[in-house]
Each structure stands twice: as structure tokens, then as C-alpha cells.
Specification:
Residues about 1-20 and about 445-460 have low confidence and may be disordered. By secondary structure, the protein is of the alpha/beta class. The protein is globular, with a radius of gyration of 23 Å. The strands form 3 sheets. It has a 6-stranded parallel sheet with strand order 2-1-3-4-5-6, sandwiched between helices. The protein has a 5-stranded parallel sheet with strand order 8-7-9-10-11, sandwiched between helices. It has helices at about 1-10, 40-50, 70-80, 90-95, 110-115, 115-125, 150-155, 170-200, 215-230, 245-260, 285-295, 325-345, 360-370, 385-405, 410-445, 460-485; strands at about 25-30, 50-55, 85-90, 130-135, 205-210, 235-240, 265-270, 300, 310-315, 345-350, 380, 490, 495-510, 520-525. The protein has 3 domains: about 20-245, Rossmann fold (3-Layer(aba) Sandwich); about 260-410, Rossmann fold, CATH 3.40.50; about 410-529, no CATH class. The protein contains 16 helices and 14 strands.
């Protein structure tokens, strides 16, 4: 009878592992904002490893220029946190109402610091706390009055230090407001560092939002890094490039640690020597950025014979423009390296960093023609180099974890993990290539000039957004039918083959702009008969 009861508990997912961990980890997430990269992507990657992510109601998180409802979050965390939960919290959402709101002067330093009080309460209740925070980018919309001077201030800040004279032509009040916002955010970051020293925060992740090799943010980085070194917290505080991808990396790193799954990753760049250059919108050389993100995800970079081979197409000389025909041979050669890696049985992941916020179209053509995309461990090409690289790093870690764990799973869970992994891969192709390169980049340049506050009753977003979604869905469904449907795939853990069935696809605009879309893609798997 006892043996039967144990089997029943295992089948229903109520049984615990030897160290009393639940079979499915549960993450309580207060995200950076409600965009897909900060919520949907995190849920999908957690699902590959059969973990669960719980977030506040979406309408609490705000949207673009409307900040999240900060006063609700402390109570939500107190009520929702359950024993065994892993807490991933954005201080920018908790203190200001999200990433965009963190650039605004509306919240005082006192208010922001008071809102961090809930962290000590959660620590006292025994929860493991990981906190994500960001150093602001140089372009800040601190208020509507400051908006006309946003570019002038950012241009000045990119060359300035703390002793620089104020920029000419910008009224003193807006210079003061700009600097006050940066100082407020720095004070919050230093307080988070102190909470980490006290043991309230178990790990603090500080990402540098869009930046460059020099500017006011450099001094802020140096002050933070100096305090971290003084307190001996280098092992508990991560300070590097990026923002939107970091929650995915934190989740992957937590899962890697809890399951002792730290895959070795062999790095291969498309151009020798390129790893020493600083990519666009970043403040660290490419190699250190890559290695930092892998470490945050729980992976280990190695010189050769890694468990996973990560191929990186490096940023091009003109990363903001569609490449000319001279890029085609380079892209095709890189695609052949991907193909060779996959066909020789290597676990292979790809990060295309060539262009900002879109995939290299020549690489996309070559991959679709020559590479079995569904066999990749991870793939991304969206937005900044750190965004794309961090996404790939997180996916390859959870995919490796699933492959190791799936031999102990029921077959239904193995299929679910494979379905989510393939859906995520294909969604990246639809978004990063289909939308960002083809639809938005090539055919709808007028979308970049739309007003930031459209009239909801008379808005070009209504017409243009609908047209974009229709064309993208038609393209994606046609591509899937021609290239992917009925293809054989392997389930994780060597649980046997399956076949790709139908694909369901929805495309929505998460914010009232055309900078990004939310691709809700789901594939079905069929048994092989």
C-alpha cells in the first residue's frame, strides 16, 4: 500500500525530491515591465524546464509611458509568496513602476527607498531573493518639459563626466532634473548593494541599459563596482551589460544551480578578433559581455569541446542599416558553419548580433535553406547584442537541463518541454526576421515616425498595426507549412521522435507603438506512426 501511495503521489506531482524540493519550481516574478521579453519569454523558458512563473495581473504593470501600480506590489508579494518559491524581483518596477518609469522624475528618492522595505520582510520569512536593477541609459525622458532637450542632454552625457560644464542651450532646470534622476537611481542601487551586504538580497543583478564606451554612466558603474569590491561581494553582485534579457538569465541560473546543471559552452565568433571590440549600445567588450551572460545563466565558457557550441555572428560595421550585397558571402559562410555543427551531432546555439533590432536577412535566407533550425539549442537576433546573446544563453541552459531531466519525466512532460522549446525557436524567427527585418524594417519605415501618444479614436496604429499583423501571420503560416510542418524532431532525454503538427499563431502589439510585437506561437506535436 505504501509503495502504491508513493507512485500515486509521484504521478500527480505531489512527491518531493530527496532534498524536499518540489518537482516543479515556482518563480514569483515582479518583472521589469509587461513587454514579451520580460514576461512571456520568461514563462516560456521556464516551461522548457517544466517550471512555473507567477506574475501580478498585467494591468498592474503599466504600459510604456504609464507606470505600474507600485503601491500594490508589496501586498501582492506578501500574499503570493509560498514556501519554496524563488523570488525574482525588479527594483525598477517596485520603486518606479517599470523601466521607462525609472527614467522619469515623478518618484522621489524617499518614496523609492521606502518601497524597498518589503525586501527585508520577505527575507525574514526565509525567502531567497534575487533582485534585478538597472543603471539608466543616457536618453532619459525625465518629464514632458524636459522632452525637447532629451537628445541634447544624451549627447552631452555621452561625453561628460561629473566635472563637465552643463550643455549649452539647455535650461539649467532640465539639466538639474536629468542629473537628479541619475543620482536618485544611483542611491537606490547603492542601497540595494547594502541590502545584499546585510544578507537581505541573496543575489543582485545590475544591468547597464543601452549605453556606450564612455559617459556619465561610466562613473556610476565605477562607484558601484568600487563599493562591491570594498564589501567583498563580487560573487553575489553581477554588474554587466543589458536589461531586458536579464530576467531570463537569472531564471536560467537559478535552475542551473538547483539542478547542478552547468553546461560547458564553446564559443566561436564569426570574425577572429571581433570579440575584443565594444558592440553598439554596450559598454563592455563583446567577449566579456558574452562570458558575463553565460556565467549569470549558470553556464561555463570553455576553449573547445564544450557540451554546447555557441556560434556568434558579430556586430557589423553598420549595425543600424540593412546590409548590402557584400554581407551575403559572410552570412552564407557563417550559416555553413552552423550547418556543419548541427550535422556532426554537436549541440548548437546561434546568436546573430550583426544588426540592431533585426536579423541579418542573408543569414536568415541561408539558415532557412541550409540549416535544420529545429535542432538548435537556442537562437535569437533581437534588439541589442546583450538582449539577443542573453536570450540564447538562457535558452541553451534550460534546454540542456530539460535534456538531462527528461529521462525521469513522464512522456507527456517531455513532449511539453519539446513543444515549448520549438515554439520559442520559431517565434524568434517570426519576430526577429519576419517582423523586425522584413515587415518593419523594409516595408514600414513610416512606423518609426508615429506620435508617442496616439489618439485612441483616430490613430494610425489601428490601421497600420492591423496591416502589419495580417501580413506577418500570413508569411509565418506559409513558411511553417512549407519548411517545418511534419518534420521529425527528437524529444529531450532521448525519449523518442515526434512530428511537428499544426502551428497556431497570434500577433499583438504589446504597447501602442510598432517597435516590437508579441508573437504568441504554439506548435503541436504528433506521434510517429
Amino acid at each position: 500500500m505504501k509503495k502504491l501511495l508513493s507512485l500515486c503521489l509521484l504521478a500527480t506531482g505531489l512527491c518531493s525530491t530527496a532534498n524536499s524540493r518540489p518537482l516543479r519550481e515556482r518563480f514569483l516574478l515582479l518583472p521589469l515591465d509587461n513587454r514579451p521579453c520580460n514576461v512571456l519569454f520568461v514563462r516560456q523558458l521556464a516551461g522548457i524546464a517544466q517550471a512555473e512563473v507567477v506574475t501580478p495581473p498585467d494591468h498592474w504593470l503599466g504600459s510604456w509611458l504609464n507606470p505600474g501600480q507600485c503601491d500594490r506590489f508589496a501586498a501582492w508579494l506578501r500574499e503570493q509568496a509560498q514556501p519554496g518559491d524563488l523570488l525574482l524581483l525588479s527594483s525598477d518596477m517596485l520603486c518606479y513602476g517599470g523601466l521607462v518609469a525609472s527614467r522619469n522624475a515623478a518618484v522621489s528618492e524617499t518614496e523609492a527607498l521606502e518601497r524597498l522595505g518589503v525586501l527585508s520582510e520577505l527575507h525574514q520569512r526565509g525567502f531567497h531573493l534575487e533582485v534585478l536593477s538597472t543603471i539608466p541609459r543616457l536618453y532619459l525622458r525625465t518629464s514632458e518639459g524636459q522632452a525637447p532637450f532629451e537628445t541634447a542632454l544624451a549627447t552631452w552625457a555621452a561625453k561628460a563626466d561629473r566635472s563637465s560644464a552643463p550643455p549649452a542651450g539647455v535650461p539649467a532646470r532640465w539639466v538639474s532634473e536629468y542629473l537628479a534622476v541619475r543620482q536618485r537611481n544611483l542611491k537606490v542601487l547603492l542601497h540595494l548593494e547594502e541590502l545584499t551586504r546585510q544578507g537581505v538580497i541573496d543575489r543582485l543583478v545590475i544591468g547597464q541599459d543601452d549605453s556606450s564606451s564612455q559617459g556619465l554612466h561610466s562613473a556610476e558603474q565605477q562607484e558601484l563596482r568600487g563599493q562591491v569590491q570594498k564589501d567583498g561581494l563580487e560573487s553575489r553582485i553581477w554588474l554587466g551589460s543589458g536589461a531586458d534579457e536579464l530576467t531570463m538569465d537569472m531564471l536560467a541560473g537559478q535552475l542551473a544551480d538547483r539542478h547542478d546543471c552547468h553546461p560547458s559552452v564553446e564559443l566561436e565568433y564569426s570574425e577572429a578578433g571581433s570579440e575584443r571590440r565594444i558592440p553598439p549600445l554596450e559598454s563592455h567588450p563583446l567577449q566579456s559581455m558574452v562570458e558575463d551572460h553565460l556565467a549569470l545563466c549558470g553556464a561555463r565558457p570553455v576553449a573547445k569541446q564544450g557540451e554546447v557550441r555557441l556560434l556568434i555572428q558579430v556586430p557589423s560595421a553598420q549595425p543600424f542599416a540593412i546590409p548590402g550585397p557584400e554581407q551575403r558571402p559572410k552570412s552564407y559562410e557563417f550559416a555553413e558553419r552552423i550547418r556543419e555543427s548541427v550535422l556532426t551531432g554537436r549541440h548548437t546555439a546561434v546568436a546573430d548580433l550583426a544588426l540592431i533590432n533585426r536579423m541579418d536577412p542573408y543569414l536568415a535566407e541561408a539558415v532557412l535553406d541550409r540549416v535544420p533550425l529545429t535542432e538548435l539549442e537556442g537562437f535569437a537576433a533581437w534588439n541589442t547584442p546583450a538582449n539577443a546573446l542573453g536570450t540564447v544563453a538562457a535558452q541553451l541552459v534550460v534546454r540542456r537541463l530539460a535534456d538531462r531531466q527528461a529521462r525521469h519525466w513522464p512522456i507527456a512532460r517531455a513532449k511539453e518541454s519539446a513543444r515549448l522549446h520549438l515554439s520559442f525557436l520559431l517565434a524568434r524567427l517570426v519576430d526577429d526576421y519576419g517582423y523586425q527585418t522584413m515587415v518593419r524594417g523594409e516595408y514600414y519605415p513610416q512606423a518609426r515616425g508615429l506620435a508617442p501618444n496616439p489618439d485612441p479614436l483616430n490613430s494610425p496604429y489601428l490601421t497600420l498595426g492591423r496591416q502589419v499583423r495580417v501580413e506577418l501571420i500570413e508569411w509565418a503560416q506559409r513558411l511553417y507549412r512549407n519548411r517545418f510542418e511534419n518534420r521529425l524532431i527528437q524529444l529531450p532525454g532521448k525519449r523518442g521522435p515526434a512530428r511537428l503538427g499544426t502551428m497556431e499563431l497570434q500577433v499583438v502589439l504589446p504597447w501602442p507603438r510598432l517597435f516590437e510585437v508579441e508573437v504568441r506561437l504554439d506548435v503541436r506535436l504528433k506521434n510517429v506512426t
